[in-house]
Each structure stands twice: as C-alpha cells, then as structure tokens.
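Hey,
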Amino acid sequence: MSTSGSETGKGPKASGKQANPGRQANGDNGVRLWPVAVCTLVFVALGLVIVQPLGYRLGTSPSGTVVREGTARIESCEPSWLHLHQVQVCQAQVRWERDLSTETARSVDEPPVDRSVYALRSLSGDVKVVERCPSRENRCRVVTADHPDGGGLGFVPVLICIALGIVGLILGVWLSGRISRTKSSPPSTFGT
C-alpha cells in the first residue's frame, strides 16, 4: 500500500504550508538567485583577467624549468591585449647558446630561430633570454633572462580568484536582498 505525503498528513497541503515558501500569493519575497550567480561569475571572470598579467609580474607565469639560454635579436614588440598591455610580446631571432637539459653548448653555426619573447618592458637590440618549460614540453615560453622566478608564489593567483569569487557572492546576496525589499515594499506616493 502506497501513501502519498498528503494522505499521511506530512505533505505541503496537509500541513498548510506552500510548496515553495519563498513565494507568497501576492508576489516573490524570497531570495533571488540570479544576482548571486551573476555577481559571482562576473567577479571570478574579473579575477581570471587580472591573474594573467599579475602572473607575469610575480614570476609565476611562465613557470617551469629553464631548459635553454641564448641571445635574442629583437625585431618588434607590441603590448599583449591578453595580458592587459602589461606584457610585451616581441618577435625575435633567437640563437640558442646552451642547452641546460643536456648540459651541452650549442654550435655557433646553428641558424637562429624565430620565436616570441615575453617581457615586462619593451625590448630592442640583443637581449639575453631563457626558455622555460613546464612539465609539458609544448608550452615552453621564451622570456628575458632577468624575468622574475616566483616559483613559491603559484598560490597567489588562485587565492585572488577565490577572494574575488567570495566578494561577488557577498555582493550578489546583498543585491538580492535589496531587490527583494524593493519588490515587496508598497509603492510610495510621491508628493502626498
């Protein structure tokens, strides 16, 4: 024998409660979720945008082991829109002088290769560079030899994204409460 909630006296109709306590017969006075979701997503996206140039400033990006050293002859530089113009991407001819993964010197006769050099300032002329590779070889980046190495600061960008997400969540809850109060308050009469 099957009993439903209303037959046993435990359902919303039997207890006299509505199925959705956030809604009342005259309107919605409950917490609205869309401001919470929108604010949280906007602030997390903002954090992701800020983390890119900050990672270069702190030296957490590009991360990895230095595998080669060389000299780059800079041809042109322009600011990177992806990094909010805080990082310069320079096109260069790079001549590798030393391979640190095998601890061998490169031949002077090897031709230079075209590479993009990432720098915190605009470059010109000949510049000492290194190639940093994370565990995956296909993500190697060439940076200036004096690029900061923030190996121990890798958690900072993650904390910034989490903190901004929490700020967005708090702002969304506050905004939701303000919207709910505005919707539930009686219309004011102007001039009476």
